[in-house]
Design goal:
63% helix; Fido-like_dom_sf; 4 helices; mainly alpha
Length: 100
């Protein structure tokens, strides 16, 4: 299987912009926590985690990230699997923090 090569070159600027977008999505997710139904909230969280980690070159697919967060075992780099688990725990912890 060949490695995907996007039709553009990743630059620091692109990486920083994608990271900023991910942060904003995370903020919106946290702020609207009570306004989304639980299934939609979980789907958004999974997509946010997958996208954020993909920026950092985590090679796990959206399906693999979903499986991990549903408690299923997958084949993959243990460090990348742990990154998914840590990201999820971090997002959960954000919901309990009081920024005031």
């Amino acid at each position: 299987m060949s490695e995907y090569k996007p039709p553009f070159h990743m630059t620091d600027r692109i990486t920083n912009l994608v990271a900023e977008i991910s942060e904003q999505i995370g903020r919106i997710t946290v702020l609207s926590h009570g306004n989304l139904n639980p299934r939609l909230r979980k789907e958004n969280r999974i997509r946010t985690i997958h996208s954020s980690l993909a920026i950092e070159h985590n090679s796990l697919s959206l399906e693999q990230v979903t499986a991990i967060l549903n408690g299923q075992r997958i084949l993959g780099d243990p460090n990348e699997i742990r990154e998914v688990q840590n990201a999820y725990e971090t997002y959960e912890m954000l919901l309990t923090l009081n920024p005031a």
